[in-house]
Amino acid sequence: MKRRTPNDIYVAGIGMTPVGEHWEKSLRVLALEAISAARAEAPSLAPQALYVGNMLSGPLSGQLQLGALIADFVGLRGIEAVTVEAAGASGGLALRQAYLAIASGLQQVVLVLGVEKVTDRIGPKVEAALAGGTDTDFEASQGTTLAGQAALLMRRYLHESQAPADALAGFSIVAHANAVHNPCAYYRRALRPEVYTQAAKLSEPLSVYDAAPYADGAAALILARGHRLQGDTHYPSVRIAASAVATSTVALHDRKDPLWLSAASQSASDAYAQSGLTPEDIDLFELHDAFSIYAALTLEAAGFAPRGQGWRLARDGVISLQGRLPICTFGGSKARGDAGGATGVYQLAEVTMQLQGRGGANQVPEAKIGMAQCLGGAGSTAATHILVKEDG
After folding, report:
1. Which residues contact 26 (CB under 8 A, 6 or more apart)?
2. What separation, in Å, do the N-terminal and C-terminal C-alpha atoms of the chain show?
3. Beta bridge partners of 16
């Protein structure tokens, strides 16, 4: 790998809170904890801007203007501060905006935050807020939910691929196994195959073990140009080699082929082109497994498996920590917990930890190149980032 260069963009610090039910903490307190941890890793870098990824603060917490609110609360009053919303891809889009701000030359050091507070409300109010990630005129208003969409896709996928009923079990089993040693994970318990097959159905054929739990959490990143690092971090340098975003239709019925995540495919292809890399070069992949069907579809869209064959990567052990392409190495959304708009920032923090050799019991051997992709809604928005470990 090449050595650090002055104008390239690097991850200088990361911070994460545990994902869970933080009844006693507000959005701003969760944000402060994650930001404080990230800034502690790069104490000499003063952020010039803050980009916040969030999807539910308005409907569930009644709070808008998160950028200004959090900048004030964490002691950064006066800096540029913006909130970015793209459903479950909000964190990835916030990172994209930070990346562009630095790449433009207008900023040198930028703080990225993903924060979500789901437990301020319970029951139907949460489901209604989450349904905002669908087409509200033609889907949500007719009773469609995110789980309902995933169930439709899963049923069609199993039919077209002629896969067995438990074909997607491996994705949940791997995620739970990887979460056991993650102190930030919501569910730190392994999942046995027989428990998966006996699970209650949320929406046939989707079971409770095919769906990630929504919970509270915050993750933060400090991004900086290479010349600003100045040996500030004690860890290996991690460069952002690619940043790409693409969109598709929000409504499933507007897609010619609902089993092809075109936004995921396009953003991944753009990221490969930017970085000069291919799927064969990727050492680990943090994908968005809000529902297990999206893990299979994402692997296919991103070029890691042929159409209709993504499920085989779980069956054949390819995606385990010891496999060719480890995914969800700290539990993914399924077991770490789905912190909504913060998902993309958690993913990038986790990839950074792997590339810096901080994975502990979950460390991917000799990891040098990692990719992360988060999705908004049923793959309507996709943000893909590729990170590279560098020498020096």
Report:
1. 61, 117
2. 10
3. 219
Q: Say how far apart CA 224 and CA 32 lie, in whole Å.
A: 20
Distance CA 357, CA 368 (A): 10
Smallest CA-to-CA distance from 140 within 250, 22, 47 is with 250
Amino acid letter for position 352 = T
116: β partners: 217
List, in order, residues 6 or more apart from 341 with CB less than 8 Å away: 53, 54, 55, 56, 85, 86, 87, 88, 90, 91, 114, 115, 116
Q: Are 200 and 229 members of one domain? A: no
Structural domain contains residue 3: no
Name residues whose C-beta falls within 8 Å of residue 143's C-beta, 6 or more positions apart in sequence: none
Phi, psi of 196 (to 5 degrees): -60, -50
223 and 273 co-located in one domain: no
Q: Does any domain span residue 131?
A: no
Neighbour count for residue 227 (Cβ, 10 Å): 12
Q: Phi, psi at residue 268, to the nearest 5°?
A: -65, -45
Kindly tell me the sign of the dihedral angle through the C-alpha atoms of 351, 356, 361, 365. positive
The number of distinct structural domains making up the chain is 2
pLDDT along the chain (392 residues), means of 10: 70 98 96 98 96 96 96 98 98 98 96 95 87 92 93 98 96 98 97 95 95 97 87 81 98 96 98 98 98 98 98 96 97 98 98 98 97 97 97 63
For residue 254, what are the domain limits? 143-207+240-390
Same domain as 218, residue 190: no
Q: At what angle do helices 292-301 and 146-161 cross, to 10 degrees?
A: 60
Q: How far apart are CA 117 and CA 121, in angstroms?
A: 9
SS3 state of residue 59: helix
Q: What is the CA radius of gyration of the chain?
A: 19
Phi, psi of 94 (to 5 degrees): -65, -40
CA atoms of 154 and 323, how far apart (whole Å): 25
Q: Is residue 127 part of a domain?
A: no
